Amino acid sequence: MTEFDIGEYFIRGDFKEVDGEFQAVIVMRPKPPLTKLTYHQVEKDRWFKTSESAKIAGMESAKQLKEAVDAGALNV
Q: In sequence order, which residues have a C-beta less than 8 Å from that of residue 20 and are 6 or more positions away?
């Protein structure tokens, strides 16, 4: 599992199962000492048939978010 550092948080792409279908999510974990995880759906109402495809989509979205932050998206 690869986590990216985006300032106050570490993020990673993953999936979440809901009623037998899967959502791609970005998991955000505050930097220590906080330990609460939050899950953010990547695309509203987009569902995947397998956990693997949802996880790949989540990982790609986490990487894109990291690249956007590195490019200054939060400095606006």
A: none
